[in-house]
Design goal:
Blueprint lengths: L1 H22 L6 H21 L4 H22 L2 H25 L3 H12 L6 H24 L11 H13 L1
């Protein structure tokens, strides 16, 4: 069942990232953004099932997305978009690294945050705000459900899907 849901969500993400690229005025951005979105969905599905983010998948996606974004944005002369992608990846990775160090978030989530930040080179302030609100709501709901099912606030929660939802909302809003 998760395979069907993952494939459906992957198709929706592919369409949404393609539309986001067209909204930015570049059909060439569709390829790196679709790859970026598909990698986020795949890593999130793995995290949802096993509470492990696959290192090889995320590393390869970071490298491939980074190279494709660099090529496309350099060719277009969009140095601001390229700089914002790098800054967003560094910022997201730094925040996740602090959460790993002090809040028991897994290191796979740190890698996933770096990947997620790469796709935010053209995110709007509105999209970022909506993403943060959505992530806060999802984390709150997930924690509430976990506690109601007999868990505690120390029960491990898969953050990959939450991170991915936030990054995807920010990128396409």
């Amino acid at each position: 069942m998760l395979q069907i849901v993952g494939a459906g969500v992957g198709a929706l993400v592919g369409a949404a990232t393609t539309l986001a690229a067209l909204r930015m005025g570049s059909a060439w951005l569709a390829a790196p953004l679709v790859l970026w979105g598909a990698a986020l969905v795949a890593a999130s599905c793995c995290d949802a099932v096993s509470q492990r983010v696959p290192t090889a998948l995320v590393r390869q996606a970071i490298i491939t997305t980074g190279v494709l974004l660099t090529c496309v944005l350099s060719f277009r002369g969009d140095w601001d978009g390229l700089l914002m992608s790098v800054v967003a990846a560094a910022a997201a990775g730094s925040v996740a690294l602090l959460c790993w160090r002090f809040a028991d978030v897994g290191f796979g989530d740190v890698r996933l945050a770096v990947l997620g930040g790469l796709g935010l080179g053209h995110a709007t302030h509105r999209g970022l705000l909506i993403a943060v609100i959505a992530m806060a709501l999802v984390v709150s709901m997930q924690a509430t459900i976990t506690v109601r099912r007999g868990g505690s606030l120390k029960t491990p929660i898969a953050f990959g899907p939450i991170l991915s939802v936030g990054f995807l909302i920010a990128a396409v809003s």
